[in-house]
Amino acid sequence: MRALRPALPLTLVLAAGCFATQRDILDLSQQNDTIQLQVQSMKKVMTQIQSNQADLNSRLEDLHKDMTVLNESLKDSRDSTGRLSAKMDDLGAAIGVKVTTLQKGITDTQQQLREAEERRKAESAEAERRAAAEEARKKAEDEAREKAAAEAAAAKSAAKPAEVYKDAKAALDKKQYDEAARGFEQYLDRFPKGESADLAGYHLGQARYAVERWEDAARAYAVVLDRFPKSEVTAGSRLRYAQCLLKLKTHVDEAKKYLESIPHDFPKSSEAAKARELLQSLNGKKG
User: First CA to last CA across the chain, in angstroms?
Assistant: First the structure.
């Protein structure tokens, strides 16, 4: 019995040691599990990091490519800028030459304009001088003509009726119609009952008819027909009066009556044949 007493504490000691070891083993097992979980988590993180690293590398490569393209673009841009700068320099030089040429052209043009203005003023002054001289000459000629006309009028006023008529008839024969008309008008004014008044009136109409002054001519013939119905120029006055009315295109019926009267009253006259011809023409147009 005494020999068994010391054995009990040893058994307890051994049992206690075994118990402690199991606890440690459990703790270590739990720690190992925790570590494994942590390792797995770290593996996942590393995998994610590696994935991110790969993506980052890809992005860096893209960035590098973009940088390379950008550098090429910058180089091209610098080259283009250099060429543009050279062109701008050339353009600036060309513009400078053109501006210089333009300035010279403007200066030359201004000088030409000044010279032209001086010439214009000189020509204007010369033209005014010539105009004044011409006006003075015309005035002198007008005065001389007026004096000559006054002297001629004075001479004619003293002239005999036959001389006045003769001078006017000579002017008519020379086709100086205005001078002839003035002569016949002077005769009729001074000698309204003169021996040749009917002839003067007829020839006055002839002078006016020759220059196509139809109304004045018709008026002269009408006076002859009214004042000298039995004159030797009655047939001619009727014919010419009718012709004036036809030229004026007025009173055509009256013109036809005068034309019809000529063959009736002066059947053998040359005016009768002309009257018949005009009547046939008028009747043909009417038909």
Answer: 192
Distances (CA, A) of 99 to 70, 120, 233: 41, 30, 88
- The CA-atom distances, in angstroms, between 183 and each of 35, 57, 146 are 157, 129, 16
Secondary structure (H, E, C), 139-194: HHHHHHHHHHHHHHHHHHHHCCHHHHHHHHHHHHHCCCHHHHHHHHHHHHHHCCCC
Q: Which two tokens stand for residue 177?
A: 């119609």
Work out the percent of the chain whose per-residue pLDDT is above 70: 89
Q: What are phi and psi of 72, to 5 degrees?
A: -60, -45
Both tokens of 43, joined, read: 């593996």
Parse the chain into domains and list their residue ranges.
72-133, 160-286
Q: Give every CB contact of residue 196 below 8 A, 6+ residues apart in sequence.
A: 161, 162, 165, 187
CATH class of the domain whose range is 160-286: mainly alpha
| Angle (nearest 5°) at CA 272 between 268 and 277 | 135
Q: In terms of Cα–Cα distance, which of 159, 179, 155, 158 is closest to 169? A: 179
Give me the half-sphere count of Cα atoms (radius 13 Å) on the Cβ side of residue 176: 11
Amino acid at 27: D
User: Computed from CA positions of residues 204, 210, 215, 221, in that sequence, does the dihedral angle turn out positive or negative?
Assistant: positive
Q: What is the pTM of this model?
A: 0.47
What is the Cα–Cα distance from 55 to 188, expressed in whole angstroms? 134
Report pLDDT digits (tens) over 221-258.
999 999 999 999 999 999 999 999 999 998 999 999 99
Q: Phi and psi for 232 in degrees, rounded to 5?
A: -70, -15
CB–CB of 218/184 below 8 Å? no
